[in-house]
């Protein structure tokens, strides 16, 4: 790369964070994600008859997942916008779009910058600090992927053994684990402030109403859109409460 672009001590990070190499890497990552999605969808269609699933049920499940992803994606998009000045579009697309953990990325980059006596943003945020922060984020994400790659076969063997002993166990355990994880995350948020508590209660109530309407009126699409609707309503409520509090 030309010397005019790479200068470790320069605070002008714009040429580096938008370098064509980073753009090429980001595009490559998303192409892999698209390819994986196509492969998974084809695998689901092939396995559907063995699971007694109709083509309509498969399409409905995919549509439900796509709609349910809208709400969380909006939150991730807002976070991504706030990180663009620090890391640039290619890095944010790769990190947030792939891993989706802004808290981890910012913490990792901040720790890496701190080792050099610098901080994210400001006059100490040089090209060298950006490179260190980006490397820290990338290595952390790589370890997550390696852990999943290594542990998945091990856990699959345990799953097979448990199913031989009692098939009902592996029906209960995943459901219980998911409920426990979501309840833990939700309850942790409620302790932060009354606004967080009200927001969670509102989102739960809206989701409950959506499920009830879908069942009573036999409108499956309401259930499919339920999570997205609940998140949008909760965001609106949180905004109104925060705005009212700041004006009081």
List keywords for this structure.
10 helices, globular, 80% helix, 2 domains, 0% strand, 248 residues, mainly alpha
| Number of strand elements | 0
- Catalogue the unreliable spans: none
How many helices? Answer: 10
Mean pLDDT: 80
Shape: globular
Distance between the termini: 54 Å
Strand residue percentage:
under 5%
Q: Sheet with the most strands? A: none
Query: What is the helix/strand order?
Result: HHHHHHHHHH
Label the structural class: mainly alpha
Cα-based radius of gyration, to the nearest Å: 22 Å
* Helical residues, percent: over 70%
Number of domain units? 2
Detailed description of the structure:
This protein is mostly helical. The protein folds into two domains: 1-163, no CATH class; 166-248, no CATH class. It is 80% helix and 0% strand. The chain contains ten helices and no strands. Helix 5 packs across helix 6, helix 7 (169-190) crosses helix 8 and helix 8 runs antiparallel to helix 10 (226-247). The longest helix is centred in the middle third of the chain and has 39 residues, at 127-165. The chain is globular, with a radius of gyration of 22 Å.
